[in-house]
Design goal:
Largest sheet: none
Shape: globular
Oligomer: single chain
Number of helices: 7
Order of helices and strands: HHHHHHH
Number of strands: 0
Mean pLDDT: 85
Structural class: mainly alpha
Distance between the termini: 67 Å
Helix content: over 70%
Radius of gyration: 20 Å
Length: 156
């Protein structure tokens, strides 16, 4: 393989990477702008309040509902971005961030992942129900053992 071939391969790789970055930017930038508008209009606060009871089962406050919902629907990358943002703004405690990350590690990208598994022959509904149940049970169990500072509580 000569130097020209290596340059061509490197160029194609850089071009492909550039396209991927552009595609991500075309999704993330409008999403972040929309999120900022929704936050300014207090829509996100209303959504968080409506979901507060549902997420309290796994030890998460209403403020944590939105990053959890984003991670569930859009995937880990977007959910992680929201978790980091909310953590830096002081909207989430360290404990809540651990619980959200735990939940999303077990169950994220409701649509994308399920479609991929269905494409290889899995039962989508069964798969998603199992993922949701496991995520809820394990996260709720972890929530019982975590103190607010994220130390594990000692059993009596």
């Amino acid at each position: 393989m000569d130097f020209g071939s290596l340059l061509q391969i490197a160029g194609e790789g850089l071009l492909g990477a550039g396209r991927q970055v552009l595609q991500i930017a075309l999704i993330v930038i409008p999403l972040m702008v929309a999120m900022q508008f929704l936050e300014e209009l207090k829509v996100l606060e209303k959504v968080s309040r409506r979901l507060e009871k549902a997420v309290s089962v796994i030890g998460i406050s209403g403020a944590g509902a939105l990053p959890l919902l984003v991670g569930l629907t859009l995937g880990l990358a977007y959910g992680a971005g929201m978790i980091i943002k909310y953590g830096k703004e002081g909207k989430l405690s360290q404990r809540e961030m651990v619980l959200i990350i735990t939940f999303l590690s077990l169950n994220h990208s409701l649509f994308e992942d399920v479609v991929l598994f269905v494409a290889v022959g899995a039962q989508g509904t069964v798969l998603q129900v199992i993922r949701m149940v496991v995520a809820v049970v394990l996260t709720a169990t972890l929530a019982r053992f975590l103190k607010s500072g994220c130390e594990v509580q000692e059993s009596a």
